[in-house]
Design goal:
This protein has 836 residues and is of the alpha+beta class. The protein has 4 domains: 128 residues, Topoisomerase II, domain 5; 76 residues, 2-Layer Sandwich (Gyrase A, domain 2); 121 residues, Topoisomerase, domain 3 (Orthogonal Bundle), CATH 1.10.268.10; 333 residues, Neuraminidase, CATH 2.120.10.90. It has 21 helices and 41 strands. A hairpin with a 2-residue loop joins strand 15 and strand 16. The longest helix has 42 residues. The radius of gyration is 37 Å and the shape is globular.
């Protein structure tokens, strides 16, 4: 053999490539990692499903195991899924099928299971040969229109069949049911949410593409776990929605029954094993880590969870509760909103997640519309042929009769009448019975309906707005069908140094300056004096600053601060630093997330906000230019740390006063020039938070609103008016006749050079005390009954003795019940102690 002819060994050697082993290992590992990431562990942002979930649902759909069919053995479903679409072992498929049937794992289960599919105690499902399953109705919404060319298909693992790359997904399943999984070098942990809230946020994004995460959080309060429980605080939720990552504290729902000496646990954090929880508590009691527990019982049944912790006779329930919270009743849920976008893993914000879903849904609806349009056009074409044939029925019948065979008849029809091959084929197959007049009318009606539908489909395909309207209406229809109440609630983060339980309840005087310095002092610091006193120092202000507000609040009350931008913020009274009378206070920017040019204009004590609120409570707000609005307190239940909109202010206008009303009050608006108008609260209809309001009073040129009083004729006797020069008066409520809103009102008090402008107007009764504060920081407390009762249109009497160039800045009322409990010393006693 010639040496030039290659031998088989030479050929084989030439096919061998030299590679560095570290490079080969690196590339092989990357290929493996991407296979796990894209093919097993991470959900697709479009339908929220991993391949195994998608294949199970598609296999059930292909086998007609729908919500309207009978249940089928789980082993049959697993076998068909494994044999046709998912070659990864039956145990993995069955575990996934079982989880989709667990109402404690899925917020909206996608599988309707029959049999033992596991429990919250960690019990495993029964073997697949013992259980049965079918699709849940909501799962069919994920597959709706899949046979109408809405999504792309790909070959299955052995090229025998085709499977969808993604499901049409008529609702944002990724957020609704969440997902969790561990890939190579990354993991995902997306919490479930309430269907109605997610759909509302999606609709908002359709209507307002520029909506921010904060705007969407107006609709999506936070995760909604299938096991209920409570999320502690809202700041972490906001961070998770904005960045895609966050750590939520989830606390069990429980009741401390001090009367019977027990703690009853009724809801557990998501994915917490109840049996293991009871076991661990028992272990800690045995080891002495938790003291004060004498018995522990699991009384749970099919109706829900009930774990009873019996306390010893001398045990302090609050201490035991804190021990349980520290070790057992609170867990951290780490949010990692990681999903596949175009096959690549990405961490997504709330807005990005919904944007990618909407992009997918628009493509689905567009392709569905194109598919239906082609079908309708084909049908219209056939119907046009039938109608033309009926117009020339005798000639058509004669042509067919004279033709030798069917093919010849079709050719003659095409040549003689100009029918297309499709129309001719349909005509020769028509039965004689379709030539009746009734059949003709039905064909004409069908043709009219088909053309109307074609016109609508062309509108959808030609207009983005019309296409979005279809998506919106379909989403709202799903919400109407499947929406339910939230299960997970929010509670205040009480794990800070200022724990509410450690703060004694007491009445406080809160003082705020124009530069937004704020502090609180005990009401006991200020004793009642006779009318006309100078009072005592209430605040030592920095140069150029002046007092803007003083009000009474309980240390545990919620305070709502409304700014010049119309934003409303919330804080508890005890979060305001307690300081001495001579202290300046603390800047409000350290307590509230205010912008640089944002200033607090009004503060209202509304301790119902954030707790169970009465539907008949409102915040009634009045502006300097005379606008008034009334908004339900419920609208301010969930106030973010960055605040929410309270009202819309026109340029140059500003908030003046806020009152909490009950819907049955009369409203009295007082102006700086001494005018007042009284009208029924019902004349101001309840409005949303972003509304400006309606006209409350028709102001004279140069006049402005000074204050608002909510008058209950059964509870209040007088209307109290105080002016900036320290004068004031009481007038009977009956002196203010009820008028219609937006009138000029009546003369309330004479202003002029002696009195100055009106500072405030309040509704008062027997036993109330008045707290007035000057702009320079002097504060006086006196009984309202020391202020003379006179009619309207009078000068009034001296209420507070002011220094030159000082003026009354604000006032508040101490209710009679609080004033009585607080005690009452005369002016003489006050002077004797040196407090004046």
């Amino acid at each position: 053999m010639s040496s030039d002819v290659p031998t088989p060994d030479d050929v084989q050697a030439a096919q061998i490539e030299t590679a560095r082993i570290e490079d080969e290992m690196e590339q092989s590992y990357i290929d493996y990692a991407m296979s796990v990431i894209a093919g097993r562990a991470l959900p697709d942002v479009r339908d929220g499903l991993k391949p195994v979930h998608r294949r199970i649902l598609y296999a059930m759909s292909e086998a007609s195991v729908t919500s309207r069919s009978a249940h089928r053995k789980s082993s049959s479903i697993v076998g068909e899924t494994m044999g046709d679409y998912h070659p990864h072992g039956d145990s993995a498929i069955y575990d996934t099928l079982a989880r989709m049937a667990q109402d404690f794992s899925m917020r909206y289960p996608l599988v309707d299971g029959q049999g033992n599919f596991g429990s919250v105690d960690g019990d495993p499902p029964a073997a697949m040969r013992y259980t049965e399953a079918r699709m849940a109705p909501i799962a069919e919404e994920l597959l709706a229109d899949i046979d109408r060319d809405t999504v792309d298909f790909q070959s299955n693992y052995d090229d025998r069949l085709e499977e969808p790359e993604v499901l049409p997904s008529a609702f944002p399943n990724l957020l609704v049911n969440g997902s969790s999984g561990i890939a190579v070098g990354m993991s995902t942990n997306i919490p479930p949410h309430n269907l109605g809230e997610v759909i509302d946020a999606t609709v908002e994004l359709i209507e307002n593409p520029e909506a921010t995460v904060e705007d969407l959080m107006e609709y999506v309060e936070g995760p909604d776990f299938p096991t209920g429980a409570n999320i502690v605080g809202r700041n972490t939720v906001h961070k998770a929605y904005k960045t895609g990552r966050g750590r939520l504290r989830v606390r069990a729902e429980f009741e401390v029954d001090e009367e019977n000496g027990r703690i009853i646990i009724t809801e557990l954090p998501f994915q917490q094993n109840k049996a293991r929880l009871v076991e661990r508590i028992a272990e800690d009691v045995t080891e002495g880590s938790i003291e004060g527990i004498r018995d522990l019982r699991d009384e749970s049944d099919r109706d829900g969870i009930r774990v009873v912790v019996e306390l010893k006779r001398d045990a302090m329930a609050e201490v035991v509760k804190n021990q349980l919270l520290e070790s057992h009743l609170e867990r951290t849920f780490g949010v990692i909103n990681l999903a596949l976008v175009d096959g690549q893993p990405r961490v997504l914000s709330l807005k990005e997640t919904l944007e990618y879903y909407l992009e997918h849904r628009r493509e689905v609806v567009r392709r569905r519309s194109e598919h239906e349009l082609a079908e309708r056009e084909d049908r219209a074409h056939i119907l046009e042929g039938r109608l033309r044939a009926l117009e020339h029925v005798d000639e058509v019948v004669e042509t067919i009769r004279e033709s030798e065979d069917r093919d010849a008849a079709k050719a003659d029809l095409e040549e003689t009448f100009g029918f297309t091959p499709e129309q001719a084929e349909h005509i020769v197959r028509m039965q004689l019975g379709s030539l009746t007049s009734m059949e003709t009318e039905e064909i004409e009606q069908e043709y009219s309906d088909v053309m109307e539908r074609i016109e609508r489909l062309e509108e959808i395909l030609d207009s983005q707005a019309e296409l979005d309207s279809v998506i919106e209406s379909e989403l709202l229809a799903i919400k109407d069908e499947y929406d339910d109440e939230r299960r997970t609630s929010f509670i205040e983060d009480s794990g800070t140094v200022t724990h509410e339980d450690l703060i004694p309840e007491e009445e406080c005087v809160v003082v705020m300056s124009e530069d937004d310095y704020i502090k609180r002092m005990s009401l006991e610091t200020f004793r009642a004096q006779n009318r006309g006193g100078k009072g005592i120092i209430g605040a030592d202000l920095k140069e150029g600053d002046r007092v803007s507000s003083v009000f009474l609040a309980n240390s545990h009350d919620y305070l709502l601060a409304i700014t010049n931008r119309g934003q409303i913020y919330q804080l508890k009274t005890y979060e305001i630093p307690e300081m001495s009378r001579t202290a300046r206070g603390k800047s409000a920017v350290n307590l509230l997330d205010l912008d640089d040019d944002e200033e607090i204009q009004a503060v209202v004590d509304c301790d119902r906000v954030g707790e169970d609120v009465d539907e008949e409570r409102y915040l009634t707000m009045v502006t300097r230019d005379g606008y008034i609005k009334r908004t339900s307190v419920e609208a301010f239940e969930n106030i973010r740390s960055t605040g929410i909109r309270a009202l819309r202010l026109e340029d140059g206008d500003e908030l003046v006063d806020v009152e909490e009303t009950d819907g049955d009050s009369d409203l009295v608006i007082g102006t700086a020039d001494g005018m007042a108008i009284r009208f029924d609260e019902d004349e101001v209809r309840p409005m949303g938070r972003s509304a400006r309001g309606v006209r409350g009073i028709d102001l004279r040129p140069g006049d402005r609103v000074a204050g608002l009083a909510a008058v209950d004729a059964d509870r209040h006797n007088w209307v109290l008016t105080v002016t900036e020069n320290g004068y004031g008066k009481r007038s009977d409520v009956e002196d203010y006749r009820v008028q219609s809103r937006n009138g000029k009102g009546l003369i309330d008090i004479k202003t002029g050079s002696r009195n100055g402008s009106v500072v405030a107007i309040e509704a008062v009764t027997h036993g109330d005390h008045l707290i007035a504060m000057s702009a320079d920081g002097q504060i006086v407390r006196t009984r309202v009954e020391d202020v003379s009762t006179v009619g309207r249109n009078t000068m009034g009497v001296i209420v507070m003795d002011l220094d030159p160039d000082d003026e009354v800045a604000c006032l508040d009322i101490v209710p009679a019940a609080i004033a009585e409990n607080d005690g009452d010393r005369s002016e003489a006693e006050t002077v004797e102690t040196g407090e004046e």
